[in-house]
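Feature request, filed as a ticket because there's no other form

It would be nice if the structure record came with a short human-readable summary line next to the tokens. Right now we just get the raw output. Example of a typical job, pasted below so the devs can see what we mean:
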Amino acid sequence: MDFMMYKGYPLVRKGNDIYFGYMSEPYVIWLQAEDAKEEKGVKLSHKVRFYQMKTDENLNPIDAIVKNGERPTLYDALEVASTWLRRANQS
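Raw output as currently delivered:
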């Protein structure tokens, strides 16, 4: 597992899944990189799906999903996800 920060939130990666946010807050974002293509020796994703999820352990994963989206790049998906997290966790 790899760990980094983006706009003040942790990113935890396992395979093609990335979890964005703090599990101690009400919401996190789950990102799934799809359609990876190799360009100049580097694997780049050309479709990223992401889901805003409640962190309530009593919910099954399907019921925990609040909203979802899709963007062509990880950067684009993280820009939307960071806005979602900031708004959801402030209320």
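Something like this underneath would help us a lot:
The mean pLDDT is 89.
The longest strand covers residues 27-39.
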